[in-house]
Write a structure and sequence with these properties.
The complex is a heterodimer. In chain A, the strands form two sheets. In chain A, strands 6-7-8-3-9-10 form a six-stranded mixed beta sheet, with helices on both faces. In chain A, a hairpin with a 2-residue loop joins strand 9 and strand 10. The longest helix of chain A has 16 residues, at 185-200. Chain A contains eleven helices and ten strands. Chain A is α/β, with parallel strands linked by helices. The radius of gyration of chain B is 28 Å and the shape is globular. The chains are: A alpha/beta, B mainly alpha.
């Protein structure tokens, strides 16, 4: 009820959890993101696709400031991302990220991987952090691996741990940067299943992926990027059935042909 | 074609069989490693012959035909080594000119070193927590024991000498150069230009100059950083210079380790909200230091042997005592025995460090880290 009384709440919902406007970024002289404007509301699931080098990974890496942008505005949960370290760390607390190459910490056990950030960033007592971690490891269906080290797990298991590790921070937003691209075909499904579960639980998700099945199953919106621009943004049904631009048609014909 | 293929699919599962005889076990090992071909077999035989020549002769010289008693070199009439001086001189080799009735103090300090180091070197040490607290106050206790105070008579540091001096300088250098090296390595990779340039300057200058030069100029160089009236004890001076020198090497070894950590590790740490110091301490350094163990221990070993250079500023470490003894008329001509004796001290310490580091690598290796995911 406190929320209802908050005059900003309605406006907040309107404005969206992530507001990106006029975003431009260069790597050296290479213009990698061009005039990106994107709004993500609470609970929305967005799949970003496009050919390699189109800037989709760079775009989501800007949202937690792993990449610095030169022009435009990114506001996450009401906090603007600028050079200010405090803001950046505040945003990172609320934004979980899953990488293509898992990036688990090999010197820590699965459980320690999961409890590290809650203990050090959120000051959660160790026992509570471990409880939460075990719950989440259960959700990603690998509680029995809690005391193993990442090197002892398969790729699919590692990626599920990475998802659990991010969730341990109780993020408001989850970013996925090609989470299944480094996996053997047999392991892709176990990771996608976890992501579908997560989507159904109402998490706000931005997913860079080529898994079009996943996109049509869970996405509220599919964003197609090419050469640093958003070419098209539509519901999955519209996107797959009535692509607007020639570039999108070509892309879809290429990835759906096999 | 088609029929063989079908046959194959119908086949029963093949049960595993034992390997051929002679490919495993002792005979297999010998075959694979020592006698794999004619050239290798020949090398093996030559090496065995060489060992037969050296080892018995060495044992004979050191133990069998040697003499352990006597007042001077004329007492030694055997063909082997003359160890008669050990009895008289061991105290000096160990403690230099430290007053004889006070030598229990460095000895006690040395014994206390064991519980101070153990909780850091090994995992399951009883009362680990308390021992770690003890090791924090150990430097104070050791200093009081060695120098005096609290009722103990003062011993001037120019009386320090022998192997004790090597241990003091070596251990202080080892304990201090690791953290300083880590800071320099991080500084050199810093995004802040001033920090970066200071660290690069320090590393390149200190590393680019022989340690012996640094020791020579330490009495000119160090007072610049001190208040005008302050004097710096010569042992402290040596510790500072040796630490500075080893830190510069250490920094580069650790920087190598830092660079070997994939950028994904930094990104994952950042993405979960860890700040710079947290991500270094919890994520990056544990891995970087682990990779750098061989290089770090290499630097430690080099540092420990470099402690013999204190001789240039007038301190008598174990090698200094040895030099003095070789020049003594009573024991003239026993340089081989003396230097073998001195070398054995260094070898025991350095070899132990090497074995320890290999043990540590193996132990950390079994703790999961088979490297990073692709």
């Amino acid at each position: 009820m406190v929320i209802m009384n908050n005059p900003n709440f309605a406006e907040d919902r309107q404005k969206g959890l992530i507001e990106i406007s006029g975003l431009n970024k260069w790597f050296g002289s290479f213009h990698v993101l061009r005039d990106i404007t994107l709004s993500v509301t609470r609970g929305e699931k967005i799949v970003i696709c496009g050919p390699s080098g189109s800037g989709k990974s760079t775009l989501i890496r800007c949202i937690n400031y792993l990449e610095e942008h030169q022009e435009g505005q990114i506001v996450v949960d009401g906090i603007e991302l600028k050079g200010d370290l405090k803001n950046i760390e505040a945003v990172r607390k609320e934004v979980g990220m899953v990488f293509q190459s898992f990036n688990l910490f090999p010197h820590l056990s699965v459980l320690e991987n999961c409890t590290l950030a809650p203990i050090w960033v959120r000051n959660t007592p160790k026992a509570d952090a471990e409880n939460l971690a075990m719950q989440l490891l259960e959700k990603v269906k690998i509680p029995e691996q809690a005391n193993k080290y990442p090197g002892q797990l398969s790729g699919g298991q590692q990626q599920r741990v990475a998802i659990a590790r991010s969730l341990c921070m109780k993020p408001k937003i989850m970013l996925f940067d090609e989470p299944t691209s480094a996996l053997d075909p047999e392991m892709i499904k176990e990771v996608l299943d976890v992501m579908v579960d997560l989507a159904e639980s109402g998490m706000t998700m931005l997913v860079v992926t080529h898994e079009m099945g996943f996109a049509s199953q869970v996405a509220d919106k599919v964003v197609f990027m090419d050469e640093g621009q958003i070419i098209e943004s539509n519901t999955p049904t519209e996107f797959f059935e009535k692509p607007q631009s020639e570039r999108t048609k070509l892309f879809l014909s290429q990835i759906l042909s096999h | 074609m088609n029929s063989t293929f079908q046959n194959n699919t119908k086949k029963k599962r093949i049960a595993p069989r034992a390997p051929p005889i002679g490919s495993t076990g002792a005979i297999g090992w010998l075959r694979q490693n020592l006698f794999s071909n004619i050239f290798n077999s020949l090398l093996t035989l030559i090496c065995i012959y060489g060992l037969i020549l050296i080892i018995p002769a060495g044992i004979d010289w050191v133990f069998l035909s040697s003499q352990f008693t006597g007042d001077n070199r004329f007492a030694c009439q055997n063909t082997g080594a003359c160890w008669a001086w050990i009895d008289q001189r061991t105290g000096q080799f160990l403690f230099g000119f430290y007053p004889e009735q006070e030598r229990w103090r460095p000895f006690l300090a040395f014994l206390l070193l064991i519980p101070a180091l153990a909780p850091w070197l090994f995992d399951r040490v009883p009362a680990q927590k308390y021992l770690r607290i003890f090791s924090v106050v150990y430097p104070v206790i050791a200093t009081i024991l060695l120098v005096g105070g609290f009722g103990l008579p003062n011993v001037a540091s120019d009386k320090f000498g022998g192997f004790m001096l090597n241990l003091i300088v070596g251990l202080s250098g080892i304990v201090l150069s690791l953290p300083v090296g880590v800071l320099l390595a991080l500084g050199r990779r810093s995004r802040l230009p001033l920090v970066k340039w200071v660290c690069i300057g320090f590393i390149e200058i200190v590393r680019g100059v022989p340690l012996i030069t640094l020791l020579f100029v330490s009495n000119i160089l160090l007072p610049i950083f001190l208040p005008p009236d302050a004097t710096l004890d010569s042992v402290v001076r040596v510790i500072i210079m040796v630490t500075a020198f080893a830190s510069a090497y250490m920094a580069e070894v650790i920087r190598g380790g830092l660079q070997a950590i994939p950028s994904g590790q930094y990104e994952a740490a950042k993405a979960m909200g860890l700040n710079y110091f947290q991500s270094m301490r919890l994520v990056i350094l544990p891995q970087a230091l682990r990779i750098s163990i061989p290089g770090i221990v290499n630097t430690f070993i080099g540092l420990f042997k470099d402690t013999t250079l204190v001789i240039v500023i007038g301190l008598f470490d174990i090698l200094g005592i040895a030099n003095a003894m070789v020049a003594n008329p009573d024991w003239l001509g026993l340089s081989t025995e003396t230097y073998v004796f001195v070398a054995s001290f260094f070898f025991v310490i350095c070899f132990s460090m090497s074995r320890y580091s290999m043990w540590l690598e193996r132990r950390l290796g079994t703790k999961g880290s088979t490297g990073w995911s692709s």
